[in-house]
């Protein structure tokens, strides 16, 4: 599978990726993927890294890219690996935010070396064949009718409000009223949050409505950094696209969450 | 039951209570009642709100009042409702301390609407008939012989000290020595705390002694705001009255805790 | 056993120890012993206190001394007691860091009185015969070939790194390379930390290697104050000595941890 390897003086012939970046960036990248998955695909190419996975019930998929610009130094040759996100997260968690983390993939031994100053970890990589693969393509494929850009704080508030009363929430766009509404109906209690353009960063109205499981959104919410703008792509009984940038634009994540069939 | 309703232009005929207050005040009010109860009676009248409950074993009752002065705006007509304190607490916990919370009781649908900016919750109220009722009257009925006013810090210290060695503690007033003593005798270890007038805000000596369960006092202690003065009314084998003000005097709570029969 | 008692005007004839010290010092002393034991021997003599214990599997022993200089006032006559560290810790935890704690042992009632301002605890002491005894002597008896002095931060880093991949870690000194290496080999992942003299406070090189259980080291690490210099005495398949001072040099602890038989 690995035909091309990183060429450099002190590089072994079997190194397909070598990069150095600050601890804050790699921690965030791993957290964003670990929000919904324990293990994922890791794609290397000369432009950067990509982490991707889909859950067993095919309800949620995530696509995380980290461009070479997010690295202090980066060399990559096309490779496809599997990674245990929990182990990876444990290791990078030991670094201080402003320390540098050096990563290196050895394609032959299928290991990822993680160096943090004098510390060196060797993590066994997983066979990507054993990890469920999302289909290629993004939310563009779904032709989502409307969209909203909200602050991370507004997204957080919506999800936490819904969590209190129900296991599901409804995202609704109303073209006539020009509002984005979040609604959750519990067995005894209800909650609604009605946001107009002035409460949002951006609103492209349409008439859409879809119901989602709160659990996945709560996990995605917990991994979201404060202060970012979150793009939500919405349709009627279509997947929800949740997209934001991190690491000063060097990182990007898109989650696609499948709708639940509405009870009404 | 509801003969009178709040009259106002934009008020529905079935609204018996409408009030706006800061999140810190309503959070504190709910916490103070939730310290000992999961659900309680909610009485509305033109002067304010009252929360009251007694536990199944009739060991502890609480009476929490929140005067109309504690609200930014307040309109109330006599009503009697039941409320799930845990749900109410979850909802108000989402507000920031300095946000305003708007409350409204709909007597017909038996719901409490809670509005925090764009967020609107609708909580189902409980039938007050299903909630155990304390008898009317306060500690005045018990003719407690002595009293002490202590800082919340001193109360906290006494309860935490006793908790370490035993499930019971004794509050004792000694008229001759002019001291207030807290004692707990465990199976192997003992603790005592002897406080004279200079360690207290106020001391009205008498000769009294009663034994109480530490558990209830610990719960009451955890909900107590720092910095308040706590009035303790004491008798011999009489209930303990624990009373303090909160919300700049707009709120007031009295707990009555039944004594345990002393082992000696 | 108690032939001599502390002689002083307001001292009962059965007092063998009376001392006053700041809460921070006694809390630290107890934490350092409680790191590996629930109960321990308490030796009193005119020069200070000593806490000592060994675990049932004889893997780890601790020796904690607190010199009379660490006390504001100290009077001690030779005595040997047993103490429940968990109860002792609970009690001293209630004091603020800068409060004074007055301790007094009553040899007749076998109790330890702990006074923190108006609070007085009476803790039942244990019969030292019921507590496993370490043999006398320290690491000097083992003739450890090499030693390292590291910062608490470096020790913390080593242990936490090893914890992530394995239940065992290897400490190795290499005389030729003049390095101190920490290694842990897990089922799938490995970690190593290679430190030269410049990464350490002091390094006395030798050729040694021993394997230790990570659990004990993690407990010792958690109780270690930040900022101290930790002396490690090392041999090949010899016990590890971990030694540091606390309370401005008035306190001293030495742990001896038995090596595990290496799998290799």
From TrEMBL, chains A, B, C:
Question: Which CDD domains does the UniProt record give?
Answer: PCNA (cd00577)
Q: How does it assemble?
A: Homotrimer. The subunits circularize to form a toroid; DNA passes through its center. Replication factor C (RFC) is required to load the toroid on the DNA.
**What are the entry keywords?**
DNA replication, DNA-binding
The gene that this protein is the product of is pcn
Q: What does this protein do?
A: Sliding clamp subunit that acts as a moving platform for DNA processing. Responsible for tethering the catalytic subunit of DNA polymerase and other proteins to DNA during high-speed replication.
GO function term, MF aspect, one: DNA binding
Q: Some GO term, biological process aspect, for this entry: which one?
A: regulation of DNA replication
The record, for InterPro entries, names: DNA_clamp_sf, Pr_cel_nuc_antig, Pr_cel_nuc_antig_N
> What residues does the Proliferating cell nuclear antigen PCNA N-terminal domain cover?
23-116
Q: Which family does it belong to?
A: Belongs to the PCNA family.
Query: Under what name is this protein listed?
Result: DNA polymerase sliding clamp
């Amino acid at each position: 599978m690995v035909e091309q390897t990183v060429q450099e003086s002190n590089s072994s012939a079997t190194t397909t990726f070598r990069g150095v970046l600050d601890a804050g960036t790699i921690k965030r990248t791993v957290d964003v993927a670990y929000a919904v998955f324990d293990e994922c695909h890791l794609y290397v190419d000369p432009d950067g890294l990509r982490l991707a996975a889909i859950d067993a019930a095919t309800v949620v998929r995530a696509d995380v890219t980290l461009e070479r610009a997010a690295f202090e130094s980066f060399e990559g040759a096309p490779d496809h690996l599997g990674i245990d996100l929990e182990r990876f997260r444990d290791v990078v968690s030991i670094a201080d935010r402003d320390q540098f983390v050096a990563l290196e993939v050895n394609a032959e031994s299928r290991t990822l070396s993680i160096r943090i100053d004098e510390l060196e970890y060797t993590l066994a990589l997983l066979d990507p064949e054993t990890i469920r693969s999302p289909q290629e393509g993004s939310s563009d494929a779904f032709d989502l009718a409307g969209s909203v850009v909200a602050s991370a704080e507004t997204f957080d508030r919506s999800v936490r409000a819904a969590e209190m009363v129900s296991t599901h929430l409804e995202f609704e766009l109303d073209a006539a009223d020009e509002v984005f509404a979040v609604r959750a109906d519990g067995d005894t209690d209800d909650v609604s949050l009605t946001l107009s353009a002035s409460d949002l960063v951006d609103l492209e109205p349409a008439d859409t409505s879809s119901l989602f499981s709160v659990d996945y959104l709560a996990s995605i919410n917990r991994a979201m950094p404060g202060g970012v703008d979150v793009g939500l792509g919405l349709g009627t009984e279509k997947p929800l696209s949740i997209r934001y940038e991190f690491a000063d634009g060097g990182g990007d994540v898109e989650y696609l969450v499948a709708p639940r069939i509405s009870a009404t």
